[in-house]
Amino acid sequence: MDRRTGTSLARLGLTGEDAATTLRGLGWWATDGPAPGCEEIMWALARSPDQSLALRAVERLAQTAPWPAIDRALRTDRGLRGRLLATLGSSTALGDHLVGHPDRWPLLADTAERGDPPPDLARRTANLLRAVGADPAAPPPGTAGGARASLTGAEAVAALRTAYRDELLGLASADLAAVGDPGLPVMEVDDVAAQLADLAEAALSASLAVAAAELDPPEELRLAIIGLGKCGGRELNYVSDVDVVFVAEPGGELTQAATKLASRVMRIAGEACFEVDANLRPEGRQGALVRTLEGHVAYYKRWAKTWEFQALLKARPIAGDREHGAAYVEALSPMVWQASTRDDFVTDVQAMRARVIENIPSEQRERELKLGRGGLRDVEFAVQLLQLVHGRGDDSLHSGNTLVALAALSESGYVGRDDGANLAASYRFLRLLEHRLQLQKLRRTHLLPAADDTDGLRWLARAARIRPDGRRDVVGVLVDEWQRNARRVTRLHEKLFYRPLLSAVSRLAADGADAVLSPEAAKARMKALGWASPEGALGHLRALTGGVSRAASIQRALLPVLLDSLSRSPDPDRGLLAYRRVSEALADTPWYLRLLRDEGAVAQRLMTLLGTSALVPDLLARAPEVLRMLATSSGVQSPELTRDPAEVSMALRTTVARQSTPEAAVASARSYRRHEMLRIACADLLGLLPVDAVCTALNSVNEAVLAATLDAVLRAESERPAVLSVIGMGRLGGGESSYGSDADVMFVCSPAEGVDDHTAVRWATRVVERVRRLLGSPSPDPALPVDADLRPEGRSGPMVRTLASYREYYARWGEVWEAQALLRARPIAGDRTLGREFTALVDPIRYPADGVSAASVSEIRRIKARVDAERLPRGADRTTHTKLGLGGLADVEWTVQLLQLQHAGDVPELRTPSTLHGLHEAAEAGLISAGDAAELEEGWRTATAARNAIMLVKGKPGDQLPRSGRELAAVAVALGYPAGGDPGEFLDDYKRVTRRARAVVERVFYGWSED
Asked: Which of 571, 555, 554 is CA-nearest to residue 607?
């Protein structure tokens, strides 16, 4: 091949000696350019999405008998050139069909020149009925005297398959014509989808005619096929399951015959044309394939769920007895438009939204045209939900077609005109890409080529009539357009529901492009979107967006997105109220709204937090700077949310030390603690910290606040007649504080040289009382109650003792439960040397060299049983009480502590205040099996996390899990369960874990045998 020929062919998108040889063999190429009369053929070939694929198909077609006629027509018929070469370069499957049936080539000729009418349902049905030998003039199959095929079995299937592909070839070539020749008419994607639905109807009619010929059903049997899904909405894809429901009359003995007929129709259509899916019928796959109309009505009145009524939005008769099918639609339609009044409507809608992308592999989510974010399902779901909400009182919305319904929503004022038009344009673009992808091999797919598949993306761009724009090649334009439309769908999906609501409540006149909802329609929409109190929610929106201030303007722009995120949270009502309060509290914070506007991740995360937690908004108003930590950088969470506890402790103590008075120091410490509690809560709710890390972080803050406060009070003392040490007890000593934990402590002092014990204790007590008062006094910042009730003699005993006093008490009056309490004792503040001396004093008591006696073990078990019986609140459920319930915190902690009392004298590794560390060491020492230790650890983590979640959700401490409702749903979400899911799944998991932990407790702590 000479250079000039190679250059000319490359300009046409063809390379290689084979292309030149093929073109010369066809007579289309001369020495250095197109042969006379073939210039237009070559340009049509150049416009084909895949020129090499098209040329190979032409080469195969040239080996068939009709080729001379095809060749002559190509030189003169502009329509044939555009259709044929575009089709052969777009679809290997249709190219194979044409090569296998070359006499079908006139199907691609110019329809106008042939004088044939455009294809319609009646014409296509007649063509397919004739293909199987049925009389198109006879009554429809499925009715009395209905048409029956003369072909049956494999012969009928083969004939129907060929006829169906013929019709598909003609339709696809018309669809692709403008790809091959920009001067040919462009077929809108709506029309293509409608004709594909007509073709499916025709195929089902032909399948029914074949089935009737094979099975010879009783003459009185009437069978209607109801189309659902895309076929029902007349918006079918090139390759798609056809969703149907079968309705037959009469019932009784003829039901079996109707079921056999319906089954055979599904099999014939499935082998010849497309899969027929009847799983949307009542009870799904487990339900009867065929029911009478009365049976359908009874089911939908008593048992149907919201999604089943949503599916019925698109129901229409598509084959069989049309009169009977119309009766089905007429009977069920009123129920569809009452679905939004059902008690479970909101729950079901939220669950349906949550399931949209759950089954997509993560690596494919960014390429999914249908189910991915900003995909086709987002548009369809939004339109269907608005139809269900507003269609109850507006018959104009009763359409099964997405684009028709969207236009009606815009026309009736439920969707802004511009929003509706933009959403429709994006939907058409995405459907066009979907059609082209499916045409390539006639396979069901919604997946775009991968980013590194340049050839695949180039082919798709050309098949979709995308052209380079001077700055970008076709691949660049395709990717940009797809991403732009996906973003627009996402943005409009959020605006669609809520922007009209803002216009409804705003004191300003609505933009002419905005929808204007009546108060009743606005309330109905809010209720359907998850708000239990629509009127209250609209009041919050009115307060946030009213007026002409800059803040109100920003809120009007922000709220459509924020409300969409809030609606997916466990408690949208509380979340919206919290957002209003936070916004009002931060009205004078200049960067607050700007941050939400400019950082989408911050806004989305804030809505998740506010719609889940009552604690977060309480803390946020006085610690707004934490919001900045919710931002991400390149998809990586800000490390500020998960700071090292040691670093936090050091920073807190340094900050507090700068204050000049104890009061200022404590105010600073408590403010810092508020900030850190909020930071930890945000990280916890966003799933960034495991439960033991949450406890460690909270514990570190509490220790630092205690230490800093004590230091501040001591600095203010002119004389120090003693040194003082704070001993952490309980969960504080164990490093396991929760959000609602008090600071359990004991105080020990040591007199200075020359100072008597009485003077030292009196001074130390005054210091301690001042510390407790400062940390517990009323303040906008959370208090840290200091609880010293675990000291010797409890509340009746002195607040502070000397080392000698502690030694004497434990030697003379100490009981086993006090030795058990000392297992958590750990110096946390004050004089370090004194703290170490206290530890040395109590070590022999809590870690007895010979363990504890059998009598002491019995006493511990008796005390535990009494605590469980007496302290469990009245009406509490022992299976879900996180502290005193079965397998809860007390069960696990007492079990570990008993092992420590028994064995820590011999096993130094057991000498730790931490429950989990002690449990691990007990397993290492062989005191408990690894399996039992794992069950106890999971029980402890689960109960601790649940206890924390209760505090996060309610904003106040609690140990009892909610039994049901939004609080239970919020606790489940706070623990990482999906929003919109069944919170009963969390309860089942909790009970399973704690039940297993309790079984270990009964064996190890109580010594009960499994028998």
From this structure: 571
